Amino acid sequence: MTAIHVAREHRRMERMSERDGNHATGSGPEPAHDCGAEHDGVHGDGHGDGHGTERGEGQGGERGEEHRDEPGDERGHEGGAGLSPEDRRRHRRLAAWRACERVLTRPAMDQRLGERLAALAADAGAVYDLEERTDLYGDGVVAELERRVAALLGFPAAAFFPTGTMAQQVALRCWAGRTGERTVALHPLAHPVVHERDALTAVSGLRTVHATNGPRLPTAEEVQDLAEPFGTLMLELPLRDAGFVLPTWDELVAVVEAARERDAVVHFDGARLWECASHFGRPLAEIAGLADSVYVSFYKSLDGLSGAALAGPRELVEEARTWRHRYGGQVFQQYPAALSALAGLERELPRLPSYVAHARMVAAELAAGFAASGAPWFRVHPEPPHTHQFQVWLPYTPEVLNEAAVRQAEETKAALFRVWTSPLPAPEGLAFTEVTVTEPALEWTAADVHAAAGEFVRYAERAERAERAERAERDRRNEKEEARTAG
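Given the sequence above, the corresponding structure tokens read:
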């Protein structure tokens, strides 16, 4: 089983979910992944999206990418009346997570609408003068956000986009026109491949080639040896669907130089670039400065409402604004998204290094706790994590692990994991989840994580025994019914 297979299954399950009328759930395939949910089910097919319909996700489009399980509407369903079994399971999980006193992350998407609006109102005045008039078609607070991002990333200009999918589509389209080459080299697990429904080809008429199929970014040698020409090399930092993995700084520099030697431009999919600085040991501007253009997200790591930015040379950004209008992204007013993005830059960006450092402790103690509990097999990937997000794999079905996760949350008021999913093809009885470490996790000590990991294995073993007994009883009933029918 490879990360590519994970991505393909994510997309397959997403399509099944949509076919069955589950569009409104907001979660990836179930058991899905939202990124710890985070992403924002398993990723899609091909590489349309890679990470949630991003492969799922977050992930259609990006649904399920960040949190593979999203809140649904619980109103009017007293006692679960009118809800499908899947919706009942989802609501049970959400209720358990919300009631927990200790979690590793508490994504804003779990908040009620009133809570989210109140939080935005409380933060907005600290990041922008609320006596200013609202924005119109990208001026005002939106323009201020663009200036702030351009300065942070060390580029002359930046343009705000309503979605990262649009920002990246436009960037690659603009570079194709400027280089005269419509081929983009990227990883088969990159977001445009796994999570965007072949938009590069269907909308922009671009084609893609892959320097590697390994669960990592390509090496300089692989870029140099790519058998056909390409105009743009796109690098996703970190490569989420492979486990939020990053190259070393020297490897990244060498890959960029290899692309330049082939007369190609370099574009960074930096949806999660914000948390890469700790791994590289470099400031954001120096990292971004390796590329010709960079896209960043405001909701993935910064906890914003939505939106993204494309930063690069002024001429490219101006052309991107034109295409943004053509793509339908010239939105009349976007001040809620812009204000929440500014708040994220002010509040979350400085905290990310502490999350990354704590994630390393959490990953190590999860592994130690699994080992001490006698778990038959486990994997924490990568170890240590490259960012504040990583994968955990265990040898149980997703049904067993999802039941264990919700039981642990309900009975102990502490939750390590959100939604587990099982990629195909894969050995039966193997599942993974994505772990995100943010501010709530800082309260967990090493001993807390170690103990909770061992406890989780015990919940999993209990759930597996119950599932086995239920399956045996079901088989017994079926055999009895078959015998009765035959008689």
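The chain has 16 helices and twelve strands. Try to locate this feature in the token string yourself.
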